[in-house]
Amino acid sequence: MAEEKIVFTNGCFDILHVGHVRYLEAARRMGDTLIVGLNSDESFRAVKGRSPVIPQDERFEILKALWSVNEVILFDAPTPLALVKKIRPDILVKGFDHDPETVVGREYAKEVICLDVGTTIHSTQIIERIMKG
Question: Strand 6-11 vs strand 91-95: parallel, antiparallel, or unpaired?
Answer without folding.
Answer: parallel
